[in-house]
Specification:
Length: 340
């Protein structure tokens, strides 16, 4: 499992750490292993909260202990989170399980709730967080206003022990996906189908995010990095589930995209390195680079279905325009920034 750090939105660069027997907030220290945690989904692999968010344990790298909510109150009525031995091969008490609530409060911050009661969340107790603030569990502010001391971002750790702040969807540049075949046709959503349509600056379904963060070190056999294509309008990702239509063609589909959790390999794509003039490429599935995005049956026009088909290169040593795509940035007016 990859090491993570847990950043509090309140205060100045404060991370969940261990000092003695207490869980506190402390400024980032790359050499402090108590700031590094594992998110272990394996002991509750099929358990989720009422909103479908998966349960996980938070296990400290330095001590091997898990973060636990035992509901032991301090004299002032607050509940500190505690540490307890973690058995990754045996039974795990429900008090060790947490879920990430689905609401996002800017820049990828979430509330982290106890599994048994999602109204109880991790809290930098009493707010105005600073070095040494105790980390506890407290009723969610959600019914009024969620303050920063209840908001957390779980970040991967680099080889030097520092956190790596991934971009969140709202911070990624918007793109459009232009097909070389036809007359200025872009990948769009119509109902539940992915189709080609003429450019419309007001059509948010034509706008996509290329998210490399969920497969940051994964590449295909040719070294091309993997990415997800996430629609701005729906928040869903383009996915290849290999479901054939009656005519044998495979349509690409949409599926919910969790930019903070596990992502199915069917959501990952790579840009093949060959360029076929004017910056056009084939876009292949991550698991099989011989399968590429295709304007099905060619002669593309408004409404042509977008699917996945074997690359023309594999059987006729050339690539037709309905398998060639250019990913273009979008201007503030909603049009592509490169005139065609």
């Amino acid at each position: 499992m990859a090491e993570m750090k847990i950043l509090c939105k309140d205060g100045d660069n404060l991370y969940v750490s261990i000092r003695g027997s207490e869980i506190v907030l402390a400024r980032e220290d790359p050499n402090d292993k108590t700031q590094q945690w594992f998110m272990d989904y394996s002991r509750a692999s099929h358990v989720a909260n009422n909103n479908g968010q998966r349960a996980f344990a938070l296990v400290n790298k330095a001590t091997g202990q898990a973060l636990v909510n035992k509901d032991d109150k301090l004299v002032d009525g607050c509940v500190q989170v505690q540490l307890a031995p973690y058995n990754d091969d045996g039974d795990v008490d429900i008090s060790m399980f947490w879920t990430m609530l689905e609401n996002v409060y800017g820049h990828g911050f979430h509330q982290i709730a106890t599994l048994r009661d999602s109204s109880l969340v991790i809290d930098g107790l009493k707010g105005n967080c600073k070095e040494g603030t105790i980390v506890g569990v407290y009723p969610s502010h959600l019914k009024t206003n969620v303050y920063d001391n209840q908001l957390w971002k779980i970040l991967p750790v680099d080889g030097c022990g520092s956190s790596i702040d991934r971009p969140v969807m709202a911070e990624l540049a918007m793109m459009k996906i232009l097909c070389k075949d036809g007359d200025k046709l872009y990948v769009s959503i119509r109902g539940s189908e992915i189709v080609l349509a003429h450019e419309d600056p007001n059509d948010k379904t034509q706008q996509w995010f290329m998210d490399y963060s969920r497969a940051s070190h994964v590449a295909d056999d040719n070294g091309q990095r993997a990415f997800a294509l996430v629609n701005k309008a729906t928040g869903q990702a383009l996915v290849n589930k290999d479901k054939k239509r009656a005519d044998g063609c495979v349509q690409v589909q949409l599926a919910p995209y969790n930019d903070d959790g596990y992502v199915d390999i069917s959501m990952f794509w790579t840009m093949l390195e060959e360029v076929y003039g004017q910056g056009f490429h084939q876009i292949a599935t991550m698991r099989d680079s011989s399968l590429v995005i295709d304007g099905l049956k060619g002669n593309c026009k408004e409404g042509t279905i977008v699917g996945v088909d074997p690359s023309h290169w594999t059987y006729m040593a050339k690539v037709n325009d309905n398998q060639l795509w250019k990913i273009l940035p979008v201007s503030g007016s909603g049009t592509t920034t490169v005139p065609m």
